[in-house]
Design a protein that fits this description.
heterodimer, A: about 450 residues, alpha+beta, ten-stranded mixed sheet, 13 helices, globular, B: alpha+beta, Alpha-Beta Plaits, four-stranded antiparallel sheet
């Protein structure tokens, strides 16, 4: 096979895409369809809670059309990081939806499920043997981190996908995945060079993001050859340019030229981009430096506390000029009333530093209004609500220096004003674990579904 | 000239939950080269723009093939943890826009590396 065509209908399952774009992609006779379904980008809630963050109906619609297309062309469909976080609950959620779709179509299909949940006992043993390292600017992993994590997943490379494809699966529903592996696995399985395969995979996993205007809610086709690949968006309203494709190469990665994964490092030091058609770009020179050992990334989140908030606006110029005073007075009143302990409050003051927090270089407030999101974090929802309620009533009637508006200090946005936000999670595992076999933390199961 | 007027794209985004990365992309190779050769874009500049210790600036890389400059810093608070103000890290780029880049009049080939 001298040319491999890979179709990415969208950058995130459930984000939607135009049906015409998928149909255009299917008309090019792709050899596979792949779709990314998860990320850590939306924060730790998905992984911590085990809940999805896209609506079921959206996944149902997006997945249906892909399943129909893949079955019609008799090509594999690969879904990576299923359900948002790739944990058991997420994978099961997508499997349920897939089951409904296949039932409706009246088709029975071999489906490979790749589970990526990490057993704590396995990880603790790895930890005790010194086979765990920090990934980036995080503290070394402790056994306490492992115990406290609500869920831990391992991020798979291409090996589990290839194993699943070898087993004859037509649809693969995979847990947490290194995003490019969804596409790179198929290309490597078909014998194409890993550098080009991973680079193309990195572009395709985001849908049409690497085009202008970029979008994760639209389709992109990649055509891979032995020494180069070509990318083109399937919507005629978009086009790939040398800059759009080159820029995407930088997207959401720490280093632009050396992009690590479980198998090694995608090396883009000698990459070149060339506009070869009005809407398509050709890429050459993507290289791959294989790793001598296999280190798999782990992600874990722990339940930290509960959160409540209220949202209030400030329009009074005197109140705006006294922001430090009323913030400090409210904190002091809270300390006196609740005593020191296991709670904290945060003042997100939009118009001051609500967006950038400690990174904000501008000190002067020049806005005619401020938005306050008051946040209370405590071991229980009741305590968080109590802190929120106390702070709101205190601040509403606090008498700051020079006050003229004695009826109330806040334009409260909602009734009720104090909003329970549920559990708060934080990422507490972001580490690498050494394995002898890239399949080790993963479990592959073949099912007949439909 | 201000960087915001020279660059076509100035953006920020998470690079994983613990890092924040900035991309500056220029409209043509010449503008990229002139900005790079100005010597203004350094790790020290990044540290100063964001009030960080210099060891929190993890990378500063010039990428001619993409006409781009990329800088990556340690996030002050991990994405979505208590105290984070920007879960995707998408609105942390503004300080770059006002950076003054003194551009040589012409003949900047002399300072080509």
């Amino acid at each position: 096979m001298d040319e491999l065509r890979l179709l990415s209908p969208q950058g995130m399952l459930g984000y939607g895409y135009p049906r015409e774009s998928l149909e255009e992609g299917l008309s090019r006779s792709p050899h596979m369809i792949g779709v990314d379904s998860g990320s850590t980008d939306a924060g730790p809630y998905r992984l911590g809670s085990g809940k999805p963050t896209v609506p079921g109906d959206a996944v149902r619609r997006d997945l249906s059309l892909m399943v129909e297309g893949a079955l019609e062309l008799d090509i594999p469909l690969l879904v990576g990081s299923a359900g948002g976080g790739g944990a058991r609950e997420h994978v099961e959620w997508v499997l349920d939806i897939l089951g409904e779709i296949l039932g409706r179509l009246g088709r029975r299909v071999p489906v490979a499920v790749i589970w990526s949940d990490v057993e704590k006992r396995w990880l603790l043993e790895k930890l005790s043997r010194g086979e765990v390292e920090s990934l980036g600017p995080v503290e070394p992993l402790t056994s306490r981190d492992v115990e406290e994590a609500a869920r831990i997943v391992a991020v798979m490379g291409v090996a589990p996908y290839i194993e699943a494809l070898e087993s004859g699966a037509r649809i693969v529903i995979a847990g947490r995945s290194n995003d490019p592996a969804i596409f790179a696995s198929f290309a490597i399985w078909k014998g194409f060079p890993p550098g080009l395969a991973f680079h193309l995979g990195k572009i395709l996993e985001c849908g049409a993001m690497a085009s202008v205007p970029g979008s994760a809610s639209d389709s992109m086709l990649g055509i891979l050859r032995e020494d180069r690949f070509f990318v083109e968006p399937m919507n005629p309203a978009r086009r790939c340019t040398e800059v759009s494709v080159a820029a995407h190469t930088l997207y959401e990665k720490s280093h632009p030229l050396l992009i690590p994964g479980p198998e090694g490092v995608l090396n883009l030091e000698n990459v070149s981009f060339r506009q070869v058609t009005p809407r398509g770009v050709e890429v050459r020179g993507s290289a791959f430096d294989p790793a001598s050992e296999c280190w798999i990334k782990l992600e874990g989140a722990r339940h930290q506390a509960y959160r409540s908030i209220f949202i209030g606006g400030v329009r009074d110029p005197i109140m705006i000029s006294r922001v430090e005073e009323w913030e400090e007075a409210t904190r002091k009143a809270l300390r006196e009333y609740f005593g020191p302990g296991d709670w904290q409050v945060l003042f997100h003051v939009y118009g001051r530093d609500g967006v950038m927090g400690p990174l904000e270089p501008v000190e002067a407030i020049t806005s005619h209004e401020l938005g306050l999101v008051f946040e209370a974090v405590a071991p229980s929802q009741e305590k968080a609500q109590a802190l929120c309620s106390f702070a709101r009533s205190f601040l509403m009637h606090y008498h700051y220096e020079g006050r003229k508006a004695t009826a109330g200090n806040l334009a409260l946005l909602y009734s009720p004003s104090d909003i329970p936000m549920g559990p708060v999670y934080s990422f507490n595992v972001h580490h690498l674990v050494r394995v002898d076999d890239p399949l080790e933390p993963f479990r592959i199961e073949l099912r007949e579904m439909g | 000239m201000k960087l915001g007027d020279l660059a076509q794209i100035v953006r920020s985004k998470n690079a994983g939950p613990f890092e924040l990365t900035f991309d500056l992309i220029f409209p043509d190779p010449e503008t990229f080269r002139r900005v790079r050769n100005s010597g203004v874009i350094t790790k020290e500049l990044v540290a100063r723009l964001y009030g960080l210790p210099s060891e929190h600036v993890l990378h500063l890389v010039f990428v001619p093939a993409a006409r781009a400059i990329k800088a990556t810093i340690v996030r002050p608070v991990p994405s979505g943890s208590v105290g984070d103000t920007d879960v995707y890290g998408a609105q942390q780029h503004a300080p770059w826009l006002d950076v003054e880049v003194p551009l040589p009049e012409s003949q900047d080939e002399e300072v080509e590396e």
